[in-house]
Amino acid sequence: MAELRGVGIGLGVAQGPVARMAEPLPAPSDAPSERTLEEETTRVREAVGVVARELEQRGALAGGAAQDVLEAQAMMAEDPSLETEIDARLAQGRTAEWAVYDAFASFRDTLTAMGGYLGERAADLDDVAQRVIARLRGVPAPGVPDPGHPFVLVAKDLAPADTALLDLDKVLALITTEGGPTSHTAILAREKSIVAVVGAVGAKGLLEGQTVIVDAASGVVTTEPTAEELDRAQNRAAARASAASAPITDGALADGTKVPLLANLGNPDGAVDAVALGAEGVGLFRTEFLFLSSSQAPTIEQQRVSYEKLLAAFPGQKVVVRVLDAGADKPLPFLNDAHEENPALGLRGIRALRASEDILREQLTALAEADAATRANGGGADLWVMAPMVATVEETEYFVTLARDYGVKTAGVMVEVPSSALLADRVLKYADFASIGTNDLTQYTLAADRLLGSVASFQDPWHPAVLRLIREVGAAGQSLGKPVGICGEAAADPLLAVVLVGLGATTLSMAPTALADVRATLLQHSLEDARRIAEAALAADDAATARTAAQEAATR
User: Fold this and answer.
1) Nearest 10 degrees: Cα torsion 201, 205, 208, 214
2) 241 exposed, middle or buried (CB, 10 Å; 0-12, 13-18, 19+)?
3) Residues 456-495: tens digit of each pLDDT
4) Torsion sign (Cα): 130, 134, 137, 139
């Protein structure tokens, strides 16, 4: 028996034979084409169009976060800049296959150097290129294997198009050798309740057909397990399935302390599933879906219709809406698409909105109108609105004042940068609440781009430096009587959720499929336990040690 360690997603455990992801298609030859320029151009256009439509169809079938990712990939495939690059190579007498391969590679390298959101898009370019080249060659695109029986999928990482449509009757668990807890693979695995361990470097040596146990709760992959270990894992899986089917209760600790469990949503269409899984409201509603797929800002009316649909789905419950979080790292032609050397530190979030204040004012208008309309119909939610990427007290005062001018009763801020965490006592004098975005807070605390694979190991919210900042915000909230929520991916980690409550979080928001595991784990600990476990994690020197210390404290 041997153990391989990575980052577990959720609390699941599964076992089965390994099936490895197919290797990428070999690079095409750069030999001159034997076809005419017109023939090669026609081939490229047809292949790109087919791949783009296929990605859109996969997205429509998958829904949720996967749909957003896949629609972005489809847009990327038909990007005019890429088309120009491909045409330039075809004009040199190259084949369609080589033109696509070389143009995508050049474009990928450029975007990688930019970092941030564009760097993330660059990581998806390889998958799009492979699909287009496969279409040109008339062969299946590399993807998820089908050995004819249920299996544990092992891959370097998964493209969103593959993760989105995994057959959960066949894929027992997922192991990747790269990626971290906030990678696309991890986020989509969590959304689909797939047992997963990501970033398990040692999995490179796993063999086809080899039986393994994948334990997401401990982040361990056991190779060559004994019969006793296999039975124990099976019993754990059965017990977890039984717990998941138990009646849903509100989030609470063992001593009765209430900890409302909310859903992170990116589209009103996800509301029904969130309610079915026990969401007590919405802790983060991302409004970007209305903006990112458009060449111009949506109208007030278009926004209001979507917001009304969301608010109507949660009558009497809290719904926290984040105004548009975009800017140079998510360039929009009507907001800010100017090139920046370091977009993660550029004009984004509330900074970008202040530079284009009409967009913010229209969004606040639409939210206030939707709130009034749903309340008038007797089914309104408790609307809270927050600004992203707030770094200063002055920005807090600006947003809260403006929001109230438009009739927003509860206005708050996201704490995603160290400055707002360190000044939380002053920020919360103006804001009605704070919501901590742990993904970005970790990125800025450890100076590691959360979308850059080379520094993925630093992107761990268990790091004591991040936990200390969260404690600062929790203490300020408790002192001033202001709510402090968590809406980053950290809240979906069941043990870390306990730690966050111990640090002062009053609500937790996550992907709806994580609610059951977090709910069950909270019920095992009192508030005193949570504070003790949190102190154990804070005393550590690094993320791995903090996680281990918390696990040991939780078992005492």
Assistant:
1) -40
2) exposed
3) 678 889 999 999 999 999 999 999 999 999 998 899 889 9
4) positive
- Sheet-wide strand order for 171-176: 2-5, 220-223, 211-215, 13-20, 151-155, 171-176, 196-198, 7-9
Read off the pLDDT of residues 84-93 as tens digits, 9 standing for 90 and up: 999 999 999 9
The residue type of 260 is P
> Catalytic site residues?
184, 487
Q: Which token pair is 417?
A: 């940068």
Q: How far apart are CA 500 and CA 467, in angstroms?
A: 8
Q: What is the token pair recorded at 27?
A: 């690079």
> Alpha-carbon distance 98 to 119, whole Å?
23
Distances 258 to 210, 419, 435, 505, 527 between C-alpha atoms, Å: 45, 29, 17, 11, 10
Rounded alpha-carbon distances, angstroms, from residue 233 to 8, 14, 206, 237: 15, 7, 19, 6
As a whole number of angstroms, the distance between CA 436 and CA 508 comes to 10
Question: In whole angstroms, what is the distance from residue 289 CA to residue 303 CA?
Answer: 10
**Which of 400, 381, 380 is closest to 390 using CA atoms?**
400
* pTM summary value: 0.73
For residues 203 and 8, give the distance between their C-alpha atoms in angstroms, rounded to a whole number.
14
Domains in the chain with CATH codes: 2-22+144-244 (3.50.30.10), 37-137 (1.10.274.10), 261-555 (3.20.20.60)
Which residues have C-beta within 8 Å of that of residue 47, sequence separation ≥ 6? Answer: 96, 100, 132, 135, 136
Which single residue is written with the structure tokens 């990327």?
A: 76
Q: In 10 A of CB 117, how many CB atoms?
A: 21
**SS3 of residue 255 by DSSP:** coil
Contact 203, 219 (CB under 8 A): no
How many angstroms separate the Cα of 396 from the Cα of each of 320, 365, 429, 550?
Answer: 16, 19, 9, 34
pLDDT band at 424 (very low <50, low <70, confident <90, very high): very high
Rounded Cα distance between 189 and 186, Å, is: 5
DSSP character for 299? P
Question: DSSP string spanning 454-477?
Answer: GGGGG--TTSHHHHHHHHHHHHHH
Quote the mean pLDDT of the chain: 89
Q: Would you tell me how many other CB atoms lie within 10 Å of the CB of residue 554?
A: 19
How far apart, in whole angstroms, are the C-alpha atoms of residue 70 and residue 64?
Answer: 10
What is the spatial distance between Cα 191 and Cα 65, in angstroms, rounded to a whole number? 8
**Alpha-carbon span 418 to 514, nearest angstrom:** 27
